[in-house]
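Why does residue order matter? Because the sequence determines the fold. Keep that principle in mind as you read this record.
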Amino acid sequence: MGTTTDVISTVLHKAGDRGHADHGWLQARHSFSFAGWYNPERMHFGALRVLNDDTIAAGQGFGTHPHDNMEIITVVTEGALEHRDSMGNQGIIRAGEVQVMSAGTGVQHSEFNADKHRRTRLFQIWIFPRQRGAAPRYQQIALDPQQGTGRFQQLVSPDPGDAGAWIGQDAWLHLGKFTKAQTERYLLRRPGNGLYAMVVAGSATIAGNVLGERDAVGISGLQTVEMHIGAEGAELLLIDVPMEAGH
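Structure:
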């Protein structure tokens, strides 16, 4: 399974057990309690508060709405998303790009599918910040697809000089696309952090848990997590977060 640092704790979240919101123009799957879906056993995983798997219909989207004291990460996997916010940022986030919005003291923004003919798919991830009341901040980066093929590519880190976008929390995000069976070992970046791993596509066995598409597992108490990619390959999203920071 991996190298132990503490008492091992595991939560298994199967794809079909997630919350589902059908708004017509929006199909949303919630790994944690969100909006109209509430599950007292699914409030957060350490500092990870939200992992939404959204499909937005062509030309539709979220009107202007507020956020504060949250690190909001958007990973577009298909199509494009048009963003506008009260900090003056405006642009298109395309598949293969990552956006980070540190809401801090407060920000308002809107998000729309920029394509009038095709859907947009994305993951939106909310992480509690290390410190409340920080100044709002925005960053958008494009990923090199070669860096995420056959290995994990870092999307987000707490170090502005490191690879990926940066957030105000001791958290790291990685995404990897694997085309064949292989074994990977992920070393947690910080003592006391846990790992929430989702199989975006394909199959994998993570710390002994057999997972299919959109299944996820949250693991704490391990320093290294072992992953066996299925024969058909897999795409994996890894979220490495402090366990003591849920609030």
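The chain has a mean pLDDT of 94.
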